[in-house]
Structures are given as structure tokens and as C-alpha cells.
């Protein structure tokens, strides 16, 4: 069983972490879309993530979204609207 940790970070540091996780989640979601459709927007700068298939890309994206949800769920109500 995974052990929970408590981290002490500033709001700005948490914002940076959330931004980075958001970028990763989006990259994996876009990879899943690309693997499903085989298409990218012509004006899109996008590099697909390396994975076996669409299902794996979706699973990784879901993991990132779950982490984001957990972190945002622990922010004070005044901070949640900012991130």
C-alpha cells in the first residue's frame, strides 16, 4: 500500500506543480486522440508521447488527472479557483 506524504509548499510552488501536471495530462490526452483518429490539426505543434496504444495513453492521462484532482481537493477554497 502506498504511503501518503505531507509536503509544505508555497502557493506559487503548488501552482507550478499543477501547471506541469496539466501540461502532461493534456499531452497524453492528445496522444490518445491522435492514436484514435490518426489526425492532428495543421496548426498544431504536438509530439505524441511514446506508448503502446490509445488505451495506455488514456490510462496515463487519467493518472495525471487523478493527481491534479487530489492536489486541488486539498487546497483551501480560496486557492481552488485559481488553479
Give a quick rundown of the structure.
Helix content is 63%, strand content 0%. With 83 residues, it is an all-alpha fold.
Describe the overall structure.
Helix 1 (11-37) runs antiparallel to helix 2. The protein has a domain at 29-37 and 46-83. It starts with 10 loop residues before the first helix and ends with a helix. It has helices spanning 11-37, 54-74, 77-80. It is built from three helices and no strands. Helices cover 63% and strands 0% of the residues. It is an all-alpha fold and 83 residues long.
List SSEs in N-to-C order. Answer: HHH
What kind of sheet is the major sheet? Answer: none
Chain oligomer state: single chain
Shape label: elongated
Mean pLDDT: 90
What level of helicity do the residues show?
Answer: 55-70%
The secondary-structure class comes to: mainly alpha
Distance between the termini: 29 Å
Strand content: under 5%
Total count of strands = 0
Q: What is the helix tally?
A: 3
Ranges where pLDDT stays below 50 over 5 or more residues in a row are none
* Rg, Å, rounded: 15 Å
List the helices and strands and how they pair.
Blueprint (H helix, E strand, L loop, with lengths): L10 H27 L16 H21 L2 H4 L3
Helix pairs in contact: 1-2
Structural descriptors:
single chain; 83 residues; mainly alpha; 3 helices
Amino acid at each position: 500500500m502506498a504511503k501518503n506524504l505531507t509536503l509544505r509548499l508555497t502557493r506559487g510552488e503548488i501552482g507550478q506543480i499543477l501547471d506541469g501536471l496539466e501540461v502532461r495530462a493534456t499531452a497524453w490526452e492528445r496522444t490518445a486522440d491522435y492514436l484514435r483518429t490518426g489526425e492532428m490539426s495543421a496548426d498544431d505543434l504536438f509530439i505524441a508521447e511514446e506508448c503502446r496504444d490509445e488505451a495506455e495513453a488514456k490510462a496515463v492521462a487519467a493518472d495525471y488527472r487523478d493527481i491534479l484532482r487530489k492536489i486541488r481537493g486539498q487546497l483551501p477554497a480560496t486557492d481552488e479557483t485559481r488553479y
